[in-house]
Amino acid sequence: MRQKIVAGNWKMNTNREEAESLAAALSSQFIGGSGVKMVVCPPFPWIMSVNQLLSVTEIAIGAQNCSGQSSGAFTGEVSASMLASAGVSYVITGHSERRSLYNESDADVLTKTLKILGENMTPIVCVGETLQERESGRLEEIISRQITSVLNGLNKDQIASIVIAYEPVWAIGTGLTASPEQAQEVHAFIRSLISGISGAEVADSLPILYGGSCNPGNAASLFACPDIDGGLIGGASLKAADFISISNSF
Ligand code: PEP
What we know:
The protein has 250 residues and is α/β, with parallel strands linked by helices. It has one domain: Aldolase class I (TIM Barrel). Helices cover 42% and strands 15% of the residues. It is built from twelve helices and eight strands. It has helices at 16-29, 47-53, 80-85, 96-101, 106-118, 131-135, 139-151, 156-159, 180-198, 200-205, 219-223, 240-247, and strands at 4-9, 36-41, 60-63, 90-93, 122-127, 163-166, 208-211, 230-233. Strands 1-2-3-4-5-6-7-8 form an eight-stranded parallel beta barrel, surrounded by five helices. β2, α2 (47-53) and β3 (60-63) form a beta-alpha-beta unit. α1 packs parallel to α2 (47-53) and α5 runs parallel beside α7. The mean pLDDT is 97. Bound molecules: phosphoenolpyruvate (PEP). Phosphoenolpyruvate binds next to β8.
């Protein structure tokens, strides 16, 4: 049985008061025991206080990014070891906003993934095609490049320790969701790529999340697909009731 995961990416939203009241609402509405791992990824400055507010729950803390460097003169950067010592256990890498707005390459995604694994945290490695790439028939080429460039830099144990998120760029923050059939097709393709690199056992055990306008209304049909093991949730993770409802959609 693969771990089911619902992770919330708060992006650059919430001031301190809003972050703390969202965490308090999650804490009061959280009911454990479902076997679904919930993760929230607040902006860096709120990680410690959100962690404290959620400490009575089993909700884990994630971060939205980290530096590819270990330490030193890198003004404005936050290292993986800093995040680990702040109580973070998951870190998003390769989000399409980082790739497109900050020119992060496949090589950067691998470097960060290795730093995260080096601190015993779980990388959530995001991949996904743009609408133009999909419509020009390049879907498999793009997904294959993004997946293999990370997986080829990891050993088998490291591959078995990551989580992948398939996030079609055209579905992120747009209200357009991939249909369950479209998402399942790509998830199965990703699992076949993993299997080709590290074998069926690792491929069968690795959680692959769907992300892109996932909400309480469409989560159940997506999560019912055999290769979809949960979601990476943007907008809908900013409302406690919606986020909890999504995590109850298996
Ligand atoms: C995301 O940014 O990872 C995401 C899935 O956003 P949204 O749910 O808002 O589309």
